[in-house]
């Protein structure tokens, strides 16, 4: 451990002595379901209000170490929590932003103990929905700053805690962007998403794209007439499913090109993809195989390079689909419809930005190892903080590979390390004085 000051040692000793409190806070949050009610298929009446319950539980925790708190909502029972810890003056300000909403449980029977909200620790891992994504990060950011005061110190700059709703389905206007609109801004922000304790200054962009293809229905018994040489072709019928698959394969070729042509120093090679996630097609009004399918839709998750604009990405994909359609007699006359249903913008600040260096230095002081600088493979609310002029990074406990899974967990040692690192980062960034 490479701790440079006596004040930092005091704070780290306090975290070590209160590890059970850090773990308990994370566990208590996991025990309170906070499923985002906008997910398709969830019982809204059953889950709505879970986010509010979690944030109401957190509010006195923030108040107990001097935060001025505000609970507010932009939609009924979708309650955000903001806590402001005023500094002594003369230091830079910092936002610690985390989302309290989670994805649904999935198949409850597949969870160990059939309990997605157990919050139990087994073999050094704390289990439950949201443990990794990202209630551990919220616990770490709160208990890390609390430790500074409990160690007899006071930050010079202000710290703003934000536990927000809406992140999981990009309802940022209900959460993070709503906080910005209320005037909560700072010199930098850290979002303790699960990064395996890596410093992440960049996310990719994400589109939800829907591709729709029309066919020409007829009885399937005459299939030979529209697929065999010498038949009457599309005078008889056209299977929309097969035309959709043709475009699926074409877009797959574009995806392979992206793997070669679109590179970024912090992303894994080939990260940017066009993922076909939902395929549907059938005859209109009757889902049986005896009638030729009249429509086909394919929904894509398009993960794009952070330095490309939304318009650049849309134009490239649409142009490619158009060229592929021109090679097919039916599709050239009945072009596919491309719809862009959602765009989650990328976020990026320079890897050598001061908030990156400060967090990396603190990580090294806590662990003795140099922090990795990597890209977040998923999307997060840092994009909206960046857009508001607040340079933002991600650093937190847990592995995104565990997020959204059955038996989701966070490693307890990462939870404690993140708590320590966020405390030292705040001390370095905001400045510190004796209380």
Q: Spell the H/E element sequence.
A: HHHHEEEEEHEEHEEEHHEEHHEEHHEEHE
Order of strands, main sheet, comes to: 1-2-7-3-8-15
CATH topology of the largest domain: Aminopeptidase
Structural class: alpha+beta
Output the number of helix runs: 13
- CATH architectural category of the largest domain: 3-Layer(aba) Sandwich
Nearest-integer average pLDDT:
97
How many domain modules?
2
CATH class of the largest domain: Alpha Beta
Pick out the low-confidence regions.
Answer: none
Strand content: 15-25%
Q: What is the 3D shape?
A: elongated
Gyration radius, in Å:
25 Å
Largest sheet: 6 strands, mixed
Give structural notes.
This protein has 435 residues and is α+β, with helices and mostly antiparallel strands. Helices cover 36% and strands 20% of the residues. It has 13 helices and 17 strands. It has helices at residues 6-17, 19-31, 44-47, 50-63, 131-150, 176-181, 223-227, 240-261, 310-326, 329-333, 354-367, 382-387, 412-430; strands at residues 68-73, 79-85, 94-99, 121-122, 125-127, 153-155, 159-164, 189-191, 202-203, 205-214, 274-282, 295-304, 337-344, 347-348, 392-394, 409-411, 432-434. The strands form five sheets. A six-stranded mixed sheet has the order 1-2-7-3-8-15. Strands 11-12-10-13 form a four-stranded antiparallel sheet, covered by helices on one side.
The gist of it:
This protein is of the alpha+beta class. The chain has helices at residues 6-17, 19-31, 44-47, 50-63, 131-150, 176-181, 223-227, 240-261, 310-326, 329-333, 354-367, 382-387, 412-430, and strands at residues 68-73, 79-85, 94-99, 121-122, 125-127, 153-155, 159-164, 189-191, 202-203, 205-214, 274-282, 295-304, 337-344, 347-348, 392-394, 409-411, 432-434.
């Amino acid at each position: 451990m490479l701790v440079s000051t006596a004040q930092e040692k005091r704070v780290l000793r306090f975290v070590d002595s209160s590890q059970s409190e850090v773990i308990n806070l994370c566990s208590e949050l996991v025990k309170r379901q906070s499923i985002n009610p906008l997910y398709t298929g969830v019982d809204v009446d059953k889950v709505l209000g879970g986010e509010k319950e979690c944030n109401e539980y957190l509010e006195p925790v923030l108040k107990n170490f001097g935060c001025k708190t505000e609970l507010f909502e932009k939609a009924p029972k979708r309650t955000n929590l903001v806590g402001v810890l005023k500094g002594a003056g003369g230091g830079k300000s910092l936002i610690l932003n985390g989302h309290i909403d989670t994805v649904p449980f999935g198949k409850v029977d597949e969870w160990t103990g059939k309990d997605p909200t157990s919050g139990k620790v087994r073999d050094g891992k704390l289990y439950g929905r949201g443990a990794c994504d990202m209630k551990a990060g919220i616990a770490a950011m709160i208990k890390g700053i609390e430790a500074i005061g409990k160690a007899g110190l006071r930050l010079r700059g202000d710290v703003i805690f934000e536990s927000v709703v809406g992140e999981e389905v990009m309802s940022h206007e209900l959460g993070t962007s709503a906080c910005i609109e209320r005037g909560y801004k700072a010199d930098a922000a850290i979002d303790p998403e699960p990064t395996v304790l890596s410093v992440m200054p960049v996310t990719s962009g994400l589109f939800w794209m829907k591709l729709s293809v029309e066919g020409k229905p007829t009885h399937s018994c005459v299939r030979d007439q529209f697929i065999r040489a010498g038949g009457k072709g599309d005078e008889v019928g056209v299977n929309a499913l097969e035309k959709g698959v043709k475009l699926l394969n074409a877009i797959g070729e574009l995806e392979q090109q992206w793997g070669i042509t679109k590179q970024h120093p912090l992303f894994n090679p080939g990260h940017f993809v066009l993922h076909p996630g939902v395929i549907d097609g059938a005859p209109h009004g009757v889902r049986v195989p005896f009638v030729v399918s009249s429509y086909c839709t394919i929904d894509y998750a398009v993960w794009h390079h952070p330095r490309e604009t939304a318009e650049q990405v849309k134009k490239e994909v649409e142009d490619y689909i158009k060229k592929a359609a021109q090679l097919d007699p039916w599709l050239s006359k009945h072009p596919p419809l491309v719809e862009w249903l959602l765009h989650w913008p990328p976020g990026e600040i320079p890897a050598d930005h001061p908030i990156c260096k400060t967090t990396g230095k603190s990580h090294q002081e806590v662990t003795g190892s140099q922090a990795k600088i990597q890209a977040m493979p998923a999307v997060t609310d840092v994009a909206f903080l960046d857009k508001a002029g607040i340079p933002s990074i991600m650093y937190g406990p847990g592995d995104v590979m565990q997020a959204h899974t059955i038996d989701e967990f966070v490693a307890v040692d990462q939870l404690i390390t993140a708590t320590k690192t966020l405390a030292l980062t705040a001390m370095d960034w905001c400045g510190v004085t004796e209380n």
